[in-house]
Amino acid sequence: MGWLSQVWIGRRAITPLVDLAALNRTRPAFAGALVLIVPVALLALVAGNLLGSAEQRIAIIFLINLIAVVANGLYSGNSGIMSFGHLGFMGVGAYLSAILTMTPEKKAMTLPNLPDFLAQAHMGLNEACLVTLVVIGIFALVVGTPISRLTGSAASIATLAFLVIVHSILNGATDFTRGSQTFFGVDRLVTLPSLLFWVALTILAARIFRDLPAGLEIRAAREDELAAQAMGVNIARRRLIAWVISAMMMGVAGAMIGHFLGAFSPKKFFFVDTFAILAMLIIGGIGSVTGAVVGTGVVTVVMELARRLEESPILPSLGLPQVFGLTQLALGLGILFVMYKRPGGMLGLAEVDDWFKHRFTRAAAKITSFVSEKRDGALVVENVSKNFSGLKALDTVSLELRPGEIVGLIGPNGSGKTTMLNAISGAVPPSSGSVTLDGVAVAGKPAFRIARLGLGRSFQNIRLFKEMTVLENVEVAVSASGRGGDIRAEAMAALEELSVAHLAERRAGALAYGEQRRVEIARALALKPRYLMLDEPAAGMNSAETQALMTLLRQIRDKYGLGLLLVEHHLELVMRLCDRIVVLNKGQMIAAGTPADVQNDPIVIEAYIGRAHSAHPSAWERSVS
Ligand SMILES: Nc1ncnc2c1ncn2[C@@H]1O[C@H](COP(=O)(O)OP(=O)(O)OP(=O)(O)O)[C@@H](O)[C@H]1O
């Protein structure tokens, strides 16, 4: 059944959003979703069938909120970009589905100017939900394409602008929405079983998405965009997928609230409810589906209590003034309190299935051999320059790296070594010059494309996805490489290669320094690159660790025939490990050759230890011997 799990486009294997190997790794997520769905359903059924109408109302509102919160969390939580705009999709979903379920006679009276195809449409709630899903999916794709290219607060502000635009359109499109007047006459078609179906689907989709390649990669980008791109993650595309799925779910939440309330106006889908939905998400824990469920439960109960208190005769009987706006006040205080005590929300990033995930992982983690495809061709850098507002960090530097070769890039602090790695890997596009990889010009291409073409790298300041496990860190690279196959097994194999497989389930940020460096190299290796660029891999290591690293790098080179470009201040390591050395100083290449050539080059000695000491090369010799 391998053909099912891999799609080939031209010569490239594409890992589809859902494939068999990916589904296999979602077993704990599936089980975790069930652990959430079952008690939610039981609670709702008890409240809906055994208690009074007030409790039934709360149960239904809780379930609709749950769809909205989990949906918003799927985008905001996984991408790390808080969306203020999702209520816009909820609004569109409410109006569209209401128009679809209303009888033509009713529409003739309340919405006389509707176009014919909408005026005549008449369907049940579930069919209306399906149409809403499709329409909102297309709408979200169009809107999300530019938004997904933005990052951080710019993206959040864009979602806010989207909310305001949708609100204005709902107010202005009077033929469809009755404008700011109440849209009434919607049949109250929501039943507890149908609502539970959509809730279960939403929780299942959100929880499974988190562990699919798309979810894994978007979470990696949330932790560190630069590192994710260097591992081949197409961040914009992954964000767009999350945006569209979450928007579709919001549309369903809109359809449900519309058909529960029976009447609403654009105000219902604006700031107040946006705040409430975000409060539930933030209080529960924005990065976890379990958190979304817990947050929705807690906030729904607190809001209900506050609402009753607001209306209650208890306060006047005690001689206390009635407090209006108590629900908003309670939400605001709740957010402040939780943020103060637990900045990540009640659950943080934890999921209910974390407890048994470990068992599934161990069962699934069979190690396969880790063999990179050997290819010919060189990495050629020609006359590359990089200016930073007047500062020439690189000045027409050229170098070449062939498969199976280890080249050291050395030079005093600030000489342009890291800038060179950044220019080659696409993290910082060169101002001029060319970089070719196996004959393919890559200068100026996005970093994720260069990574997929066969360039792995590590960073000077370790850039692991700290909140993810060691295994997930490496899985991101395997997944983003787009070559298909068993992501988990390949990631484990890369960890084995660096002798850190025993750390697979640990949180990457909790590892010792030397371990983190190894994991970072394993992550780069998991791309199966032709060239590996390591930025100060021995920094912070003691001499035993450095020696072990040296042996390891040599083994990797010998086994896979990789070309290694090594930026390192540890000159002894460089001299013993490298076949050739390139020396930079103030952005210019001042020497290149074998370790012996470079070691005795007076220009290099002068650059390193200064003009004043150039008469005493013994200091340099000591540092390199
Ligand atoms: N993004 C940037 N914006 C402005 N200046 C930069 C930027 N990145 C690097 N520089 C400057 O470019 C020069 C080269 O920096 P680079 O980090 O490449 O040197 P390096 O040889 O790697 O130094 P080190 O050994 O200390 O890591 C330095 O003067 C640095 O301040």
Helices, strands, pairings?
Layout: E1 7-9, E2 12-14, H1 20-24, H2 27-49, H3 53-79, H4 86-101, H5 104-110, H6 116-120, H7 125-147, H8 152-172, H9 174-177, H10 192-211, H11 213-223, H12 225-230, H13 235-261, H14 271-284, H15 289-311, H16 314-317, H17 326-341, H18 354-364, E3 379-388, E4 391-401, E5 406-410, H19 417-425, E6 432-437, E7 440-441, H20 447-452, E8 455-457, H21 470-481, H22 487-497, H23 513-525, E9 531-535, H24 543-560, E10 563-567, H25 571-577, E11 580-585, E12 588-593, H26 595-599, H27 602-609, H28 618-624
Parallel strand pairs: 5-10, 5-11, 8-9, 9-10
Antiparallel strand pairs: 1-2, 3-4, 3-6, 6-7, 11-12
Subcellular location: Cell membrane
Protein name: Branched-chain amino acid ABC transporter ATP-binding protein/permease
Organism: Dongia rigui
Written overview of the protein:
The relative contact order is 0.10. The protein has 28 helices and twelve strands. It is an alpha/beta fold. Strand 9, helix 24 and strand 10 (563-567) form a beta-alpha-beta unit. The radius of gyration is 29 Å and the shape is elongated. A six-stranded mixed beta sheet has the order 8-9-10-5-11-12, sandwiched between helices. The protein has helices at 20-24, 27-49, 53-79, 86-101, 104-110, 116-120, 125-147, 152-172, 174-177, 192-211, 213-223, 225-230, 235-261, 271-284, 289-311, 314-317, 326-341, 354-364, 417-425, 447-452, 470-481, 487-497, 513-525, 543-560, 571-577, 595-599, 602-609, 618-624, and strands at 7-9, 12-14, 379-388, 391-401, 406-410, 432-437, 440-441, 455-457, 531-535, 563-567, 580-585, 588-593. Residues 1-18, 367-372 and 611-619 have low confidence and may be disordered. Bound molecules: adenosine-5'-triphosphate. Adenosine-5'-triphosphate is lined by residues 388, 391, 393, 411, 413-419, 460. Residues 388, 391, 393, 411, 413-419, 460 line the site of adenosine-5'-triphosphate. This is Branched-chain amino acid ABC transporter ATP-binding protein/permease. The chain crosses the membrane at residues 29-51, 58-75, 81-103, 124-144, 150-170, 190-209, 240-263, 275-303, 323-340. Pfam families: ABC_tran, BCA_ABC_TP_C, BPD_transp_2.
